[in-house]
Amino acid sequence: MSIKVRRGIFALMNYQNEFYKSSEEPFFRTCYNTVTQRELYECHYKIIKIIEGSIVISGAGKVINGQENSYLFVNKGEFSKIKMTPAKNGRFELLGMNFTDKFLKTYSQNNFTPNCTHKNPDIYYKIKENILLKGLFASLQIYAENPICLDKKLTNLKLEECIRILFLTEKELTSYLFSHKIDSRKELPEFMNANYMFNAPLERFAEFSGRSLSTFRRDFIKTFGMTPNKWLMDKRLEAAYRKIADEKQKPSDIYWEVGFETLAHFSRKFKEQYHITPSQLKQQKES
């Protein structure tokens, strides 16, 4: 089924299509009718509301659950895995607002913004529902479900409305929006060991570690003695081996968790590395 996008209005995700990983659209809507798992590599802050269904999100060693009518702040510069489960009526839907660096910079130039007093929030931060936020997302849902064209001015007004609501209800979190930058260089061993299981492009690993791609490759080889692609593959396969051999987990349950898109690709790479298939290893350990 095709993805329909109305530019400058809503990035509309129809059933069984991917969640946008780095959409520039100010508003987006995501719908699925089956349980769906995706990885997210966020480059922008987002505020999302779960309309129907539920989500389970994992990243940075933490897990958070989002239920129907819950609101979440999505941090930028982070990797996460998300599992979206439809409600009893067979439908999952969320609405979101996307705050780009360009929008936040323009807003801060024209409006008062508080100094940051908020510590670095988790990748996903639950926001308490309030009548103002509820009203804002109710209007967004009308725009999402009807062929109503929002011009640039109205689009910016909606984004500014959300910022002002957060100033009233989540002031410390809002101050963080205008102060945090993905520019601090992270120590590669700690950063890579925390994120190797995400099947992200090297450009994203480089960006989130605070480096250019060329600097990332150079620093990586100096630190680990091998290329990033080689290290990532070895690390994912080692993790998979432990989960199957020591934790007795099924290959079909862990391939996505350790960073492989398909079971077939995982099985092929596993056999190349260990000269045995994941299923054969599991049988050996159980016998």
Structural account:
There is one protein chain. 42% of the residues lie in helices and 22% in strands. The longest helix has 18 residues. The radius of gyration is 21 Å and the shape is globular. The protein is built from eleven helices and eleven strands. A hairpin with a 3-residue loop joins strand 1 and strand 2. It has 287 residues and is of the alpha+beta class. The strands form two sheets. A seven-stranded mixed β-sheet has the order 1-2-3-10-5-8-11. Strands 4-9-6-7 form a four-stranded antiparallel β-sheet, with no helix packed on it. The N terminus is likely disordered.
For the structure shown, list the relevant keywords.
single chain, 287 residues, four-stranded antiparallel β-sheet, seven-stranded mixed β-sheet, alpha+beta, disordered N terminus, 11 strands
Write the layout of secondary structure elements.
Blueprint: E1 4-6, E2 10-13, E3 27-32, E4 36-42, E5 45-52, E6 54-59, E7 62-66, E8 71-74, E9 78-85, E10 92-99, H1 101-110, E11 124-127, H2 131-145, H3 152-169, H4 171-177, H5 188-195, H6 202-208, H7 213-224, H8 228-245, H9 251-254, H10 263-274, H11 278-286
Parallel strand pairs: 2-3
Antiparallel strand pairs: 1-2, 3-10, 4-9, 5-8, 5-10, 6-7, 6-9, 8-11
Helix pairs in contact: 3-4, 6-7, 8-10
